[in-house]
Amino acid sequence: MGKLTIGCYPGLVGNMGYDFALKLADAAATKGHKVSIWFSGNATGSVKANQKHLKDYSTGEKHIKALLEKGVEICTCEACTVARGIKKDEGIPGVQWNAMHWYLAKIHAADRVLLIGGE
Amino acid sequence: MGDVKLAFIVQKPQYKGETSRLAITHAISYQTVEILLEDGDTVTPKLCFIGEGVLGLQKGQNAMDLYGITSTESHMKNTLLVDLDVLVCKEDLAKYGIPEDAMPSAEDMGADKSIQVVPYSEIQKAMEEAKHVLFF
Amino acid sequence: MKLAVFVSDFKLATDTLDRLKAEKLGIILVQNGVYHATTKENGKASSLLDKTPNLYALSDDVQIRGMKDADVDKRVKVVKYGDVVDLIFNDFDKIAWL
Predict the structure, then answer these.
(1) Percent above pLDDT 90 for chain A
(2) Which among A109, B44, B49, C56 has most CB atoms closer than 10 A?
(3) Which domains does chain C have, with CATH numbers?
(4) Within-domain flag for A52
């Protein structure tokens, strides 16, 4: 089995590139691959806990929690997240907060890397 | 594992979206990734600008006064100060009528490196030599 | 290099895709990119389909748009997320998102 590192920049709600990233991660984890996800840019808004899941809107929190349960590592860019007014104690438990070099470190170890850039 | 080469390919223009800026700042973070790796392991990105990605690189930007944000020009100077290889596509600069000497320089700040304006074939080569390619 | 490119838009700036050279090029159509496989413009299929024989379209993204797998151009293989994972690990060594 291999290691997949996904960088996800598009925001939750408003760009389904985010949804794609989570579904791909889920499919890879289900197949036994080791998956790491890095959120930067607008994607960091999705790590705030207590999201209301409305049917018209993509949801992040529910899927993030499910991925964490499956052993997927998820990390948010601390700078991008705090710039958006989200504090660490407001984040979804289990999601790591780190600087950009976390992503590069995961890339170093990865067999495959997919960056989904933002808008 | 040693050094892992990466090619960061920026094809989106600057300022309206943040993707191009994020490419630059992620590339710069190669400087500190070693703290998370085993001894001797490194990451070496080449930061490449193609297509519309070359549109907003010119010197003379005033983002701080106008929008209160760091300019792309300033970020580009930082890349040179941390010894990153920055490649800008020669053909695309010519296509958009941007003179090569419009590229910023950090020589006066003590940078050893300068932006390299290169044929697209050099950027293709960077992609082939890299272990991973990241399109921004 | 063996490069798989995810195409996620219909109105693609083809500049980048046209310039990429690979010993094996794969194009995986996702999100609005699936329209390249399902939709003709003035009766003509997308020129993107001529770029490589290794063409794939994500079934979820075809169906969410009200189309069926049978609407997909015969040159394009319809795949699920699990198949995409297999492709990127087994058939290609680098992956890019446009």
Answers:
(1) 87
(2) B49
(3) 2-9+23-97 (3.40.1260.10)
(4) no
Residue A37 covered by a domain: yes
Q: How many domains does chain A fold into? A: 1
Place of tokens 């990390």: A75
Taking only the tens place, the pLDDT of each residue in B87-126 is 999 999 999 999 999 999 999 999 999 999 999 999 999 9
**Residue ranges making up the domain that contains A61:** 3-45+57-116
> Please, what are the domains in chain B?
3-135 (3.40.1260.10)
Does the CB of C96 have a partner CB in chain B at under 8 Å? yes
Interface residue B37 vs chain A (CB under 8 A): yes
- State whether ipTM is beyond 0.90: yes
Residues of chain A with pLDDT under 70: none
Q: What pLDDT, in 10s, does the model give residues C55-87?
A: 999 999 999 999 998 999 999 999 999 999 999
DSSP result, A64-103: HHHHHHTT-EEEEEHHHHHHTT--GGGBPTT-EEE-THHH
In degrees to the nearest 10, what's the CA dihedral of A57, A58, A60, A65?
100
| CATH number of the domain bearing residue A106 | 3.40.1260.10
- Residue C66 contacts by C-beta under 8 Å, 6 or more apart in sequence? none
Q: Considering CB atoms only, which of A27, A114, A116 is closest to C81?
A: A27
Question: Which residue in the set A41, A109, A115 is minimally distant from B134, CB to CB?
Answer: A115
Q: Which of C80, C81, C94, C95 to mutate to test the interface with A (most CBs of A within 10 A)?
A: C81
- CA A40/CA A76 separation, integer angstroms: 6
